[in-house]
């Protein structure tokens, strides 16, 4: 699978988040997946990509020209796609990905999470979306959305469109399980060809 990982680029965060990013990159590579990321070499974004490559995984970075110009691009990416702006960046990342994994991050990460979550809730895509949150950074967000749901501001399936976990291995199991569910089995492909 091509798994898009949304995560922090801040360099002012606790080192435990960098360790989490490395663990995710290593597990992604171990499972034979390709990383799609924001294409920066700094903070968690750089750590996840370096760990994926160290484990033999392939990495695709997608970065706007403005960030290339300030020299934060992951030039070691197997493929580095340079976009005109942030909107195009998100579109390319979405199009290139089979699934989405969200790690702790800032407002940019939240924007990416909400865009994918909203589109899935509206039925605009059926790609798996998993939030990996070992230390509860997103707990207030979950409470907020639960309150919005109770007040009638969200669609009934808002929480069917997303999975939450605190464990790296479980995060990948959820992504793989939901992707297998969406993909036709070899038997189903055979029936379609015969029918």
From TrEMBL:
Keywords: Cytokinin biosynthesis, Hydrolase. The keyword Secreted does not apply. It holds the Pfam family Lysine_decarbox. Signal peptide: none annotated. InterPro entries: LOG, LOG_fam. It catalyses: 9-ribosyl-trans-zeatin 5'-phosphate + H2O = trans-zeatin + D-ribose 5-phosphate; N(6)-(dimethylallyl)adenosine 5'-phosphate + H2O = N(6)-dimethylallyladenine + D-ribose 5-phosphate. The keyword Hydrolase applies. It comes from the Bacteria. Its EC number is 3.2.2.n1. Belongs to the LOG family. PANTHER family: LOG FAMILY PROTEIN YJL055W. This is Cytokinin riboside 5'-monophosphate phosphoribohydrolase. It comes from Planomonospora alba.
